[in-house]
Design a protein that fits this description.
- This protein is α+β, with helices and mostly antiparallel strands.
- The protein has 2 helices and 8 strands, in the order αββββαββββ.
- The strands form 2 sheets. The protein has a 6-stranded antiparallel sheet with strand order 2-3-4-8-7-5. It has a two-stranded antiparallel sheet with strand order 1-6.
- The protein starts with 8 loop residues before the first helix and ends in a 10-residue tail after the last strand.
Length: 145
């Protein structure tokens, strides 16, 4: 009596998977289904990316120049620079508990804290986007303690 070997389902699945994988690998290396070699296409030239925001150099503060800061409200921080100048850092939105704790941390990129790309982190762990830096107006400049 002749016995017929029937492969288990998982063996048939693996064999089918390998067959499909082989077909995809042939399709990816320029070999067409009939065995001929497909012509090599020139890659399309890439266009410059639009809407990529690069930080404006004037909208960055060198972090080694920050002497201290005061939190004025949940969206505004006054930076006192070592040069004696002051910058107002405006956040993109209300940053809860910033004024309550009066503390934040940041990770500088290339030694700078930049508007629209920089973020601060509150003591509560919330990340808040920096919208812009502006020089403090002369009549509101607080005296250094």
């Amino acid at each position: 009596m002749l016995t017929q070997f029937i492969a288990p389902a998982y063996v048939r699945f693996i064999a089918g998977f390998l067959l499909v994988l082989t077909a995809f690998s042939w399709a990816g290396n320029g070999v067409q289904a009939d065995g001929s070699v497909a012509p090599i296409k020139k890659p399309e030239p890439t266009l410059p990316l639009k809407n990529v925001k690069k930080p404006n150099i004037s909208q960055c503060v060198e972090t080694d120049q920050i002497d201290r800061y005061t939190v004025e409200d949940d969206q505004t921080v006054r930076l006192f620079l070592k040069t004696g100048d002051q910058q107002i850092m405006l956040l993109a939105r209300h940053c809860p508990q910033l004024q309550f704790h009066g503390y934040f941390s940041y990770t500088p990129v290339d030694g700078k804290l930049c508007a629209s790309t920089g973020k601060i982190k509150t003591r509560a762990g919330l990340l808040c986007q920096i919208k812009r830096f502006t020089p403090a107006p002369e009549h509101t400049v607080a005296q250094k303690e």
